[in-house]
Amino acid sequence: MIPPLQNGTAFVMNQEQQRLDRLQSAQLSDEQKLREAASDFEAIFAQQMLKSMREATLKSDLIKVSEGERVFREMLDQRRSEQLADSGSLGLGEMIYKQLQPHLRE
Length: 106
Fold this sequence. Notes:
4 helices, mainly alpha
């Protein structure tokens, strides 16, 4: 039996921890690990940005938001942020990579 989710944030954090564990156990070069970490940071940044944008919108008390809908929106925001990071449209991950890449050789 699958335990119920306590909240969407716990689910997202669990997925991020699993991704981090896979990255650490993979046989990747330092440059590949840095590129993955920079992309992950960009995704986290984009997710926080989407979350802030969603919280800034006007809300109505006429329609109650269920816990399931809230979890779904968090998961949707996570997926959108991953897509933004993978496409490089924000460019933050690439900037982080370029900034830190020279320090790999030290």
